[in-house]
Every structure is written in C-alpha cells, then in structure tokens.
Design goal:
GO terms for molecular function: iron ion binding; oxidoreductase activity. By secondary structure, the chain is mostly beta strands. The chain is built from no helices and 2 strands. The chain has a domain of 25 residues. It is globular, with a radius of gyration of 12 Å.
Length: 42
Amino acid sequence: MHRIKLEARQAPKALFHVGDAQEVDLYAYCNLHGLWKATVKK
C-alpha cells in the first residue's frame, strides 16, 4: 500500500509506481466528499 498526504494548498496530484500490475484500485478520502474509489487498467 502506498499513501501520500496532501496539505491544504497543495495540488491534488500524486504519482505511484505499480510495477507490472494490469489493474489498480485507487482510493482517495476528501474531508468534504468522503471516500472515492477508481479502478485504473493498463
């Protein structure tokens, strides 16, 4: 598991190396909108 904590005025961007994975589930928590999930496929 990889985690990046963003600060208040920081751009909402992150870069992760996932090796040879063909599909990755991404989760993001927003203090206004709650938990978000996206699946990314190569």
